[in-house]
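User: I'll paste a sequence; please echo it back and then give the predicted structure.

Assistant: Echoing your sequence first, then the prediction.
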Amino acid sequence: MAWQGTFIAFLYLCLPANSFHPFTVKDYIYPRHILRRIEKVDWLGCIQACLADTSCRSYSFRSSRTALGETCSLSECGISGNNDREAKLVFASGFVFQQLKTVQNSLDCQGGGQYIHKEHRLAQSVILHDKTKTYLDDLHIFLDPLHSKEQGAWIRCYHANSDGRNFTVFHENCDGIGPTVTIVRVRNYVFGGYSSVSWKDDCRFYKSPKSFLFSLYNVGGYSPTQLLLIDEQDQAALWGCSRNGPTFGHGFDLSLSYADVPQCYARPKTYAPPDNCNVGKSCNFFTGQQLFSPSDIEVFYFKPNT
């Protein structure tokens, strides 16, 4: 282990500070289970914590772009049978992941510990991971006319079940970075929305001309549905507020929140209502219930090729 400590200390001192703007390990290899999350520890402290934990095989390190503090996540995730990857770094707009110890198998990593090519990063969705390929293909049918894989890649900026059920993190990571797609799971139901403009946190409505809502699995079973804006120039396509997660329409057509009791709902007004739903009335199309609590939420932003 001594050589690892020497290597890490050398690397830590030599990495240019202005190049160190990490995203999360989930852009590439990401764990099914986080052993421990440590807030407000620097990068070297994260490395030392993993080396000291006998269960830890790898770690991810992320600095907040807009708030003080840093987050270190320890996991058992790693690539099996690849000793040459020990103490190697994976970069994506800065440092994101390091495997420090060998693993016997890659079962603790989503996707079997394989790198995910940039054209297929929506395939790394935890929500869609256990679904058939049809889910991903049908979601791309909605998205590709606006953002094809030849133009860039979808990169996750928020995952509720690993980043925390706190929309402060959503706004820190996803505001101001361009178009996004939000994927929501409530039990077996899968749905969400696309925003053609950046999210904001100033608690107001704003236009998003190409935005839409979608459902993959709803009260009708697997039945992919796209719900477009009634008027593309509607000034209330999106609601951006620090107190809320991704929120669509003036109804709200889709409102997401976390609370001890179910508070999320869908009430069509700005987007076309689904079958058997009426404008201005609560709608159970997405989840079979008028009020619901998310099982998980993911948000991906589109990063154009440079």
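DSSP finds six helices and 14 strands in the chain. The CA atoms of residues 257 and 264 lie 6 Å apart.
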